[in-house]
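Comment on the following before class.
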Amino acid sequence: MTLDDIAGVAHHPDGEPAGAVVLTHGAGGSRDAPLLTRICDEWAARGWLAVRYNLPYRRRRPKGPPSGSAAADQAGVVEAVDAVRALTAGPVVAGGHSYGGRMTSMAVADGLAVDVLTLFSYPLHPPGKPERARTEHLPRITVPTVFTHGTADPFGTIDELRPAAALVGADTEIVEITGARHDLISKTLDVPALAVDAALRSLR
């Protein structure tokens, strides 16, 4: 399995990588999402190999919502982590934005080994439907997990996220992005730097 197989784009650090980061996109997005690019740039600047990749449904068609099964997308996460793990001997951080983070968290809950899980705008529930919580797999996650989340995210409030994060069977940290919606755009906060800082704290 190579980076081409996972439609991966690598951001290389200067010198030998401290470890690897493997990130994927939200439901309507792709590996080229500006947020993913900025986060991978930040990781590379800190000395890590960072790879952003397309989930299987996005490899099949360039636009549109997820098609096929969630199980296939979770298998795609496992493939991507395995491919990137082969490139460096250090720790592995994995995650993604929204749907991509959810698929990664489900793969980790099912036994995919990573050192830290980093979730951006985790979609706790569909907008306006808090009763449809996407939390049942969280207690099976046993690695440190960082939730980077906007305070105006319609897929879940910070108050809803706190008890959900507490379900995770390991240390968690919530990075609150004040005023940001699901896209995590902020005019005042450096979202990639805050998220990377939290993940590095989780590693220690």
